[in-house]
Amino acid sequence: MRFLAFFLTTPVAWPRQSSVYKWNEELRSQDRPSHSARMNRLCPPCSDLGSSCCSNLFECRLWSNSSRGVEGLLKEPMGMVEGQEAVERLERLTGMLRRRGVILPAFEIHGGAKGLYDFGPVGGRLRSKVQDVWRDHWLSQGDVVEVSCPTVTPFAVLEASGHVAEFSDFMTVCLSCNEASRADTMLEGHHPNPDALPMAELQTLLDDISPACPSCGASEWSPIVAENLMFDTVIGAGSSGRPAFLRPETAQGMFTTYPAIYRHFRERLPFGAMQLGRGYRNEISPRQGMIRLREFNMAELEYFIDPASDDAPDLGAWSETAIQFVPAEGDAFEGTIPKALADGIILHPTVAWFMARTYDLMMSLGVLAPKVRFRQHDRDEMAHYALDCWDVELHGSYGWVECVGIAHRGCYDLEAHEQATGQRLRAWRTYPEPKIVDIDGWTIDGAKAGPAFRALAGQVKDKVEALAADTVFPVSIVLEGGEEVTVESAHVKRVQRTESVAGEWFIPHVV
Amino acid sequence: MRFLAFFLTTPVAWPRQSSVYKWNEELRSQDRPSHSARMNRLCPPCSDLGSSCCSNLFECRLWSNSSRGVEGLLKEPMGMVEGQEAVERLERLTGMLRRRGVILPAFEIHGGAKGLYDFGPVGGRLRSKVQDVWRDHWLSQGDVVEVSCPTVTPFAVLEASGHVAEFSDFMTVCLSCNEASRADTMLEGHHPNPDALPMAELQTLLDDISPACPSCGASEWSPIVAENLMFDTVIGAGSSGRPAFLRPETAQGMFTTYPAIYRHFRERLPFGAMQLGRGYRNEISPRQGMIRLREFNMAELEYFIDPASDDAPDLGAWSETAIQFVPAEGDAFEGTIPKALADGIILHPTVAWFMARTYDLMMSLGVLAPKVRFRQHDRDEMAHYALDCWDVELHGSYGWVECVGIAHRGCYDLEAHEQATGQRLRAWRTYPEPKIVDIDGWTIDGAKAGPAFRALAGQVKDKVEALAADTVFPVSIVLEGGEEVTVESAHVKRVQRTESVAGEWFIPHVV
Predict the structure, then answer these.
(1) What pLDDT score does B360 carry?
(2) Is residue B266 less than 8 Å (CB to CB) from chain A?
(3) Distance between alpha carbon B192 and the CA centroid of its chain, in Å?
């Protein structure tokens, strides 16, 4: 499950009862005496900053006099704001966030850097508070721990996770001004979902449409290429340096530390591990303000479960909570999470559990219920690792925007790392009753097969033990290296016994 | 002021009254019932992990039976542990931290990566708790705000800050195995302070000594080069990509956001801004476990002051607190912070204030007083930006190790960014009384000088206004472009007036 911090900036009003709002109330009451005293101070000469441009979200005279201030937002009808009005509102919001030190373009004195933002003196504290709420919400579940891993990640880790191959966008470069653009973004409006098109179809569409370059207006484009979106760097110096990336998600840390987490929970599923930290995505052409960042605050929780377990979490507490759903198939509807699970729309009870708990988190952060919905990913839209995926979307000036992703990742990640490393990333499942297994087959007689096959004896043993009980010797066997050997009956012994097997190793599934 | 998180791992015992210890107590009492129940569980077959290898620092049977456990540490005499015993103790500590999920080598299933560590299921929580203590300690001061800036930093920012030129170590490469090493590290023991040697002297020493390569044992080395220690990357794709680094310190964020912070505090010094986050240092050959990391958790606070202000913080609360000092000149001594300031050993009252508050923080984190000392940097050891610098050192198995740095950075950083960007990064100082300034000189008479000098009139005006009151016209003036013009008395007017100046802009100093 993945949370992105930009929901801080979606203009969703905070109702009075929210905990974040309460914190602001508190801030306001602390700040009032000195603030009022300061409000009467004259501006220093030559400064273009009046005292009315203060940094307190709720105190400033300009702000509280504005019909579009926080009070205005609260009074606004629940209906969604669209079109030109949304654009203007967004500009006002961005300007306000910047003037008041909430969120501002990073490195602005040096000309700025697209896709990078600072949390200023007000935003920095707000960010910490939201992180605390998130951390406490999930730790209180009792079976979740917090880990913290490096952001610099060796090539091999992200090759195993599939990010080296899959984490890319289709890029094209303007032949006139050399500015790189995302091909699918420029073709929005010419196709219902250009994001999901394969490269060849996207190329055909680009050739047909020839969109204007957002930088210079020309319409000549280089052939589309898949551009990996990870920032790359090198660990170490000189020729001993190793290629590495900045992590595209924090989730991989929970998979690479899986052995320590499994040990921590005394090898008992289910359990979860979470991490708050930076994620990186070297966007080709970041636009849309805080929605497409090159470096962002994220918070992820991975919950490890036994896919064969029937344990279902108790969703009784949410049986009356009406929520908006947009399923992958069929129409949007309002319903409850337990009902959507029972109807087979939500595919797994653990996914339903985290949807319910996430909804509670959104409410405790002060998001308004009519501005939240759960949208299920279409099959061709899902990330390379997902079996089922729901986004929590919030409605703001950009329309409905993903804020949380709840994906059933199956055993994709642990299996991928296991295959790449040869390390066991599994859990032990004890059978209710030990299974009695009859073994009837063959093995080699070391005293005779050893001298006969010498260095190949080990390989011959594996092949012989795989033979059926009714094999008649001599048989001819082809080994891995291509050598053919003949196994005589003198080389082998019959094996007949029963074994009691207490359980088995399996790869946990992850939500 | 800069805090590094590795003090988490220095084996300094926590006394019972510390807040971190209290948290562990709490954890223990919560965990006891389920823990005890789990302790009786049999290990799964095939697993080499016994239930006695549990992750709770204080509960495990192995641990509590060990004479070297936490209780053992508490009972240990205050005397310092050195030599072979220290090495063994460190190995035990590292093994324990790893087994119990506190700190473990990162990406271990993929073969690991030197200089990168994970905070595991126990360490992750401990890290958050220490960060909370740090954050609350400084925010409670009332004139400090928290900001949060990107780690990916454009080239221009770190060029202005001096890191592109100065943030380097001297590297040499083994001609036999190609492994890079730090030249000064290999020459420790052959010079009292190889760290401070210029490149030529280090080269001479390397040639004389020919140390053995730590990897392969050979003794042939490439010529020494200065290797920049920042991880580099590129923002954006294609030919429009811009060179960037991962930040070597969080402090630059407080300087680049200075205008927003100054505005937040209504343009009134003093104030502080702090940031917790990752710092990066692409060490040539990281050794010493957690002491030399390539990616680390840091917490920095920059406090902006008026260098002309006489305001001195009240250090009365520390007048009885005896602390160990190692000054740059003279012998180590035990004394109080107010006394060291009065004696001119600590050079600035604000530095003394932050030393005192930092000492309190160390105590509240549970560090034992005899294992803390303040050491002043020698002049040739200080960072490129520092006027005075004190380290808080903690004594552990590596000896005395820097944990906090408190540097008087002067106006170095803001001035450097101001020069690089042309933006004003200053504060306004209002004079107690407005200053009356007599102006007696010349300016041009626009009606006559305009037609006479045409496009050059602006430049002529600047030159004329810089002339002394007793100038006799005509005079010959050389302009920027090299043109020589003759200014007649008809072109100019005498200016005589008094002006009242209310204050001035200055660059704040930073501690």
Answers:
(1) 96
(2) yes
(3) 25
CA-based nearest residue to B285, from B167, B176, B186: B186
Contacts of A421 in chain B (CB under 8 A): 109-111
Q: What is the helix, strand, coil percentage profile of chain B, to 5?
A: 35, 25, 35
pLDDT at B334 over 50: yes
Does the beta-carbon distance from A278 to B44 stay under 8 Å?
Answer: no
Q: Map tokens 């729901």 to a residue.
A: A390
Which amino acid is it at B103?
I
CA–CA–CA angle B48, B53, B59 (5° rounding): 165
Please judge whether A120 and B47 are an interchain contact, meaning their C-beta atoms are less than 8 angstroms apart.
no
Looking at residue A320, its pLDDT comes to 95
Q: Please name each of the domains of chain B with its CATH number.
A: 9-111 (no CATH), 114-164+246-307 (3.30.930.10), 168-228 (3.30.40.230), 311-409 (no CATH), 434-503 (no CATH)
CB B148 within 8 A of CB A119: yes
What residue in B sits closest to A285 (Cα-Cα)?
B236
Q: Which residue has the higher pLDDT, B398 or B426?
A: B426
Helices (H), B257-381: 258-264, 337-342, 349-364
Interface of A with B in 382-421 (CB under 8 A): 417, 420-421
Extended strands (E) in B209-270: 225-228, 232-235, 242-246
| DSSP 3-state percent helix, strand, coil across chain A (nearest 5) | 35, 25, 35
Q: How far is A44 from chain B (nearest CA, A)?
A: 7
HSE (side-chain half, CA atoms, 13 Å) at B368? 19
Does the beta-carbon distance from A238 to B110 stay under 8 Å? Answer: no
User: How distant is the Cα of A105 from the closest Cα of chain B, in angstroms?
Assistant: 10
Token pair for B414: 């803001």
ipTM value: 0.76
Spatial distance between the Cα atoms of B273 and B30, rounded to a whole number of angstroms? 37
- Per-residue pLDDT of B368-388, as tens digits, reads 999 999 999 987 777 666 788
Q: For residue A188, what pLDDT is reported?
A: 84
Split chain A (511 residues) into runs of 10 and give each run's mean pLDDT.
55 36 37 30 29 28 30 39 74 91 94 93 95 95 96 95 89 87 86 84 90 88 90 86 94 96 95 96 82 92 94 94 94 96 94 96 94 90 77 88 92 94 93 90 88 87 87 87 87 89 94 93
Tell me the chain A residues in contact with residue B227 when contact means C-beta distances shorter than 8 Å. 237-238
- Give residue-wise pLDDT tens across range A67-107: 333 333 333 434 445 567 877 888 888 899 999 999 999 99
The pLDDT value recorded for residue B33 is 28
Handedness of CA A80, A84, A86, A92 (dihedral sign): negative
Quick check: A511 and A414 in contact, CB under 8 A? no
State residue B77's pLDDT score. Answer: 38
The answer to whether the Cβ–Cβ distance between A282 and B124 falls below 8 Å is no
Residue of B nearest to A42 (CA): B266
Mutate to test the interface with B, among A257, A419, A430, A499 (most CBs of B within 10 A): A257
Which tokens belong to A125?
A: 């504290």
Beta-bridged to residue A181, according to DSSP, are A172
